[in-house]
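Final report, closing paragraph on structural work. Over the funding period we assembled a curated collection of sequence-structure pairs, and we close with a single example.
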Amino acid sequence: MPPEDYPESVDRPGTTVTTHPPRQADEAAAARDVAKPPLPSLSFCRRREESIAIQLPHVIAGCLVGAFATTIADRLGNALLTHYYIDDQKVPVNLDRVFDRLMTEFTGQIWDELWDFYYASNAQHGRQLSLLFEGPICQMVLVLNGPELSRCVLDKIAPGLSHRPTSWTEAANGIDIHLALQVVCRWWDTEKKARSPGGNPDDIARTIGSHLLNGKALAHFVRRIRTVLYSPHHVQMHLMESAAWDILLKRRMPPPADGYHVLQFRFECDPRQRIMEQGHLDVEAFPAVTGTAGECVATTVGDYATKQWPRCGRVVVGAVRDALRAAAQSSQQGQGFAGMSFWDDSDPDAVLSPGLRLLHVEIEEGMIRLSTSAWLLAFTSVTQLMAWLCATLSSSPFPEAVSECCLQITHWEHTRESTFISCSLAHRAVPAGEGVPWLHQRRGVVVVPGFPIEEHIAGSIM
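Its predicted structure, as stored:
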């Protein structure tokens, strides 16, 4: 619909706005009252008047999802990342939740970016701003932040690594993002006339599309995808998260009423050699090398764990340290290398570890046992942390060479009350000509791949 077909009393976000004298006082008041709306969410709300829902027809929403997925794949050069996950894994990797987190970050940034632009150019038209963000822009954010997008994008860049069914995007092919946004804005203007921000919907679509494709939010989003998905430095994080969700959500009995799952780990890990090398039992001060042989950082156990897992790092590492101290004392008394420690949410640090209720660590020769009561998200963090910690504390079977060490989940079983998970460590000797030179100056050093190093590069001691 051309702009002249709109009533003169309707202002047009994204286009030249004509101010009518009879409404100047009302618009000035609206400008004073306009506030940045909160980012819309599909989460359940008890109050019906506060509920937010996707109102676009599925075919239009599917076109928007498909067009955006194509845009992202094009920006990534249609490069595949499947080669990081082709090994035979006991638990298949699932990247949907990883992509969901990246998408949540992006939608928050594009929401802020669009608001800053529209408010700067139309701050005096508060009602039109509100209608624009409650209408087309809200619908765009809700659709892009929905569960369908991960499947659509991952099918292009990581075939087979999404576990979600195809829904809206089944017939969405051959449409670009500009046309998809145009359809969204036209539909809203036609079908939701009373809630339309007015103006030319095609102009609004072009403005949104321009900021969506050329703004800082999308550029940052693509960089984050390359860092988190295309890098080898997050593979173990993704594998452990997939295992945690798969093991707990596929159990046949109903979940605990209070949300606290009871789990018992058995890690094949013998840290005695590391203790002898360091000459002390302050595990937090042990050197740790994280990354790959070709790109890694050197930190300490305490520094890496608390930065990467701020909600459980100090608690878990402290519990392992206390158990190792008890085991060393027992060994000195001739009773064998065995010890234990206990932590629960009565500890003052519990306020920093939401969702974690209990930790019980047992140390035996060649083995670490960990029993925990935790919510699913806390359990995921503990699983990731222990995968890194056990590999870091392990001793290399190649004393004259550098090795990379990864933890593998080999077996699990459910009982009515708890879940038992067995894990082992796998070492790979790094060839002499591979890796950074300083690594080969440290005989027997163990590098732990598959965990983030970006935030630790500046603090590396090397």
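Confidence is low (pLDDT under 50) at residues 1-23, 44-50. Strands lie at 261-267, 287-292, 295-300, 339-344, 356-364, 367-374, 403-414, 419-429, 446-448. We thank the funder for supporting this effort.
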